[in-house]
Design brief:
The chain has 12 helices and 20 strands. It is of the alpha+beta class and 388 residues long. It folds into 2 domains: 227 residues, FAD/NAD(P)-binding domain (3-Layer(bba) Sandwich), CATH 3.50.50.60; 122 residues, D-Amino Acid Oxidase, Chain A, domain 2 (2-Layer Sandwich). Helix 1 links the parallel strand 1 and strand 2. The two termini are 39 Å apart. The site of adenosine-5-diphosphoribose has 28 residues, from helix 1 and helix 8.
């Protein structure tokens, strides 16, 4: 078997890359370890920057997000019962974000890609990269007891944080940076109307809370919890009670409902700067992880994919590899800025166990500065809608 670009991983990065390449007449095959049902049931964040929606349009998969996505032109920062509204639209000259679940983006991409014969192999076991340093790489995998090998021109590593692609880069050239946060986010999804029509990022003495949504009928909430905590420690009532405490005075009443999903995610900032090695190029979570504060994860994955798809197009249309060579440098500039913003917003709004009373006063002073300064609010809005 042969293809031009072998894509490892069928999450949003791999799916979007494959569809963009297809629209440019470039052939690819996606190898995904899990089943389609599994991939489509993973619940992740739900805020799309305008650039991400535009990229979905370029890939021809923006119908549903335009119909069902909710345009948000502001959000709230909550501080001890009072709110600061960040008027994204006013502060960024008319920009907005779209509330639309990553799960839905994945489904939309799968719908078009499943119509392309042989474009994706689900439940591909033991995916292994071969000869990525040389001119003729290949990817092998096992399925139903058989081993298959696909030779290709390039390998795109879109297999997330735990994938095999990043691990295939020799340790002596790898440059990685990491910061682990001493807490996680406990999330709950429920079919109840949201407590507010805009998102609320709340600073509270018990810890951070976020009120988000998927639609007018489906809410998504999170609270900061110690890293050692388990979702089983949080029966629905305990979680709703805590949300009421942390969001008190910031929004309307919180409507309770049974959890459709409840899980704890650890928070981490991670950048693997070696985003290319020979014929292998990493994109999305395979190369970087950000804490969910600010919802940059999927948007960063989309911007990697845009830069990489453009570089492949230059290669195949013009025989020019300059853009492929410059891919890591171009992608990393935007990645580090998003890593900074999500780290900064996390530090501003969360209670770290190591914080002294002085540190907490500093947080509140910074929030009060933001409340009173259009300049500070503009900085936040500009980052939130997505840097160019
Ligand atoms: N072989 C094949 N597929 C693999 C392997 C492997 N060895 N390891 C992982 N995968 C698959 C996973 O099953 C998953 O479907 O790669 C996919 C990676 O998808 P994601 O983890 O969603 O990463 P990405 O596509 O880059 O999407 C980034 O996801 O985690 C969020 O915040 C993040 O929103 C961002 C988005
Ligand atoms: C979500 O709705 O899941 C969400 C929204 C905003 C964030 C993170 C997660 O910053």
């Amino acid at each position: 078997m042969r293809t031009q670009v072998a894509i490892v991983g069928g999450g949003p990065s791999g799916l979007l890359l494959s569809q963009l390449l297809y629209t440019d007449g470039i052939d690819s095959v996606i190898l995904e370890k899990k089943s389609r049902e599994y991939v489509e049931s993973r619940i992740r964040a739900g805020i799309l920057e305008q650039g991400t929606v535009d990229l979905l349009a370029r890939a021809g998969v923006d119908d549903r997000v335009r119909r069902e996505g909710l345009k948000h032109d502001g959000f709230l920062l909550g501080v001890d019962g009072t709110v600061i509204r960040i008027d994204i639209q006013k502060l960024t000259g008319g920009k907005a974000v779209t509330v639309y679940g990553q799960t839905e983006v994945t489904k939309d991409l799968n719908t078009v890609i499943s119509g392309r014969e042989g474009a994706i192999v689900y439940e591909a076991d033991n995916v292994t990269l071969h000869d990525i340093a040389g001119p003729s790489p290949a990817v092998s995998y096992e399925k139903d007891g058989q081993t298959y090998t696909i030779s290709c021109d390039f390998v795109a590593g879109c297999d997330g944080y735990h994938g095999v692609s990043r691990a295939s880069i020799p340790a002596d050239v790898a440059r990685a940076f990491e910061f682990l946060y001493p807490f996680g986010w406990l999330g709950i999804l429920a079919d109840v109307p949201p407590c507010n029509h805009e998102l609320i990022y709340a600073h509270h003495r018990n810890g951070f809370a976020l009120a988000s949504m998927r639609s007018h009928q489906r809410s998504r909430y999170y609270i900061q919890v110690p890293a050692s905590e388990r979702a089983e420690d949080w029966p629905d009532d305990r979680l709703w009670n805590e949300l009421e405490v942390r969001l008190s005075g910031l929004a309307g009443p919180i409507t309770r409902g049974p959890a459709l999903e409840k899980s704890i995610a650890p928070l981490r900032s991670f950048v693997f700067e070696t985003m290319s090695y020979g014929r292998l190029f990493l994109a999305g979570d395979a190369a970087h992880i950000v804490p969910p504060t600010g919802a940059k994860g999927l948007n960063l994955a989309a911007s990697d994919v845009r830069i990489l798809a453009d570089a492949f197009r230059e290669h195949y249309r013009k025989g020019n590899d300059e853009a492929l060579t410059r891919y890591p440098q171009r992608a990393l500039d935007r990645i580090w800025k998003a890593v900074r913003f999500s780290w900064w917003l996390t530090r501003l709004t969360h209670r770290f166990p190591s914080m002294s009373p002085f540190d907490i006063r500093m947080q509140v002073a910074e929030l009060n500065y933001i409340r009173d300064s259009a300049f500070a609010q503009t900085t936040i809005a500009e980052n939130y809608v997505g840097l160019p």
